[in-house]
Amino acid sequence: MIEMMKLHHRSDLHIARKVWHLTMGCAIAIVYSLGMSRSGAVMLLGFVLAFDLFVETIRLKVPQVNEKVIKFWGPLMRRCEQDRLTGAPYYLAASILAIGIFPRPIAVLSILYLACGDPIASLFGVLYGDKGPRFTNGKSWIGTGAGMLTCMMVTWFYGQNLGWSVPTLIAMTIIGGIAGGSAELLPLDVDDNFSIPIVSGFALWLAVILI
């Protein structure tokens, strides 16, 4: 039988998961921003998603396989994911949709918000969330603020390579930071790994059109 105590809770610091979260998203964003075609990126990530869903389906139906998967991936998994899908399929699906729907710069930024903003928000929420108020969904103001600031920094540094004017860069930095950092606060019954890139991507795309 799988020992539940080996898996982390959502409230744990869980540095290994945060590093993996950051690494996976940044790798996707960097490879795509360096010139991989949209169709190529979608096909590659689609293959990875299909394989991941195959493994997830098998492990959830066969306890022996689930035990082996958890022994291998346990350092990156949460306790609540033992008997349900992990965050990886949502992460990959959101990245595929972002690349398939949005212009390249918007897709890259929305994926970077997930890769950087989400783990930083979680980190500060776990460490300092109890020192301030919380939203009705349990998210801390401190964690959300840290996520917004991180998304702003990502937008500012990446946006300087896009030829935006200074006023446009400032506006997009503010909009991107708010959208990327607050997407998880929306009353959507979906995984944060899915909602953050999609919500922030549409917000950025609309801002680009209007500005």
Nutshell version of this structure?
The protein is mainly α and 211 residues long. The protein contains eight helices and no strands. It has helices at residues 15-33, 38-61, 63-73, 88-101, 104-128, 141-159, 166-182, 192-210.
Structure characterization notes:
This protein has one domain. 70% of the residues lie in helices and 0% in strands. It has eight helices and no strands. It has helices at residues 15-33, 38-61, 63-73, 88-101, 104-128, 141-159, 166-182, 192-210. The relative contact order is 0.13. The model is unreliable at 1-5 (pLDDT under 50).
Give the key terms.
211 residues; mainly alpha
Can you lay out the helices and strands and say which pair or pack?
Layout: H1 15-33, H2 38-61, H3 63-73, H4 88-101, H5 104-128, H6 141-159, H7 166-182, H8 192-210
Helix pairs in contact: 1-5, 2-3, 2-4, 4-5, 4-8, 5-6, 5-7, 5-8, 6-7, 7-8
Number of domains as seen in the coordinates: 1
What is the tally of beta strands? Answer: 0
Structural class by helix and strand composition: mainly alpha
Uncertain residue ranges: 1-5
Count of separate DSSP helical elements: 8
Nearest-angstrom radius of gyration? Answer: 18 Å
Which outline best applies?
globular
Distance linking N and C termini:
57 Å
The SSE string, one letter per element, is HHHHHHHH
| Secondary structure: helix percent | over 70%
For the biggest sheet, the summary is: none
The whole-number mean of residue pLDDT values reads: 93
Strand share of the residues?
under 5%
